[in-house]
Design a protein that fits this description.
Layout lengths: L10 E8 L5 E8 L5 E7 L6 E3 L5 E3 L2 H11 L7 H17 L4 E3 H15 L1 H11 L5 H18 L1
Parallel strand pairs: 4-6
Antiparallel strand pairs: 1-2, 2-3, 4-5
């Protein structure tokens, strides 16, 4: 495993444990060259998952794209990388459990927004503003009103 800090290819495993869902192995590693620690995940290889985009084109599912979008939405918010990884793992596991091994970007986006709505309001609004591509401030305000009224119902 290549060190993300110094690119050395030798590291030693310090700790291994299964994730909460027991579908992945989380490994803490230490680079033998620079001594810095990093985390890797190991999972069973399975049938490739494809994403159906809005224009009906298809591409391979890339969990890193989802992580990047979540990291951007959660920037400077009290959301840990473990929470972000859990959201991605949950969505990925749901998608792999589907029979046809295809998931729409709409389904992915809605699932992310459901998770963020329960996790952090600001991250939710950030993600929704990009995902829903609000045309104007009125549409944006309607989304905020819906979010606030949903919160009042659940109190």
């Amino acid at each position: 495993m290549k060190c993300p800090f110094c690119s050395n290819i030798e590291s030693k495993v310090i700790d291994s444990r299964p994730t909460e869902e027991n579908t992945n192995i989380r490994r803490r590693r230490e680079c033998v060259e620079c001594g810095k620690r990093f985390t890797t995940y190991e999972k069973v290889e399975s049938i490739p998952l494809r994403v159906v985009k809005k224009d009906k084109s298809r591409e391979m599912f890339d969990s890193q794209k989802l992580i990047n979008g979540l990291v951007k939405a959660c920037e400077k918010r009290p959301v840990s990388m473990e929470q972000i990884q859990k959201i991605v793992d949950d969505i990925e596991n749901e998608a792999y459990s589907m029979l046809d091994k295809e998931i729409t970007t709409t389904r992915i986006g809605e699932r992310v927004m459901d998770e963020l709505k329960n996790l952090d309001d600001v991250a939710y609004v950030r993600f929704a503003s990009v995902y829903r591509q609000f045309k104007d401030i009125k549409t944006f305000m309607e989304e905020l009103q819906t979010m606030l009224s949903d919160r009042d119902i659940h109190k």
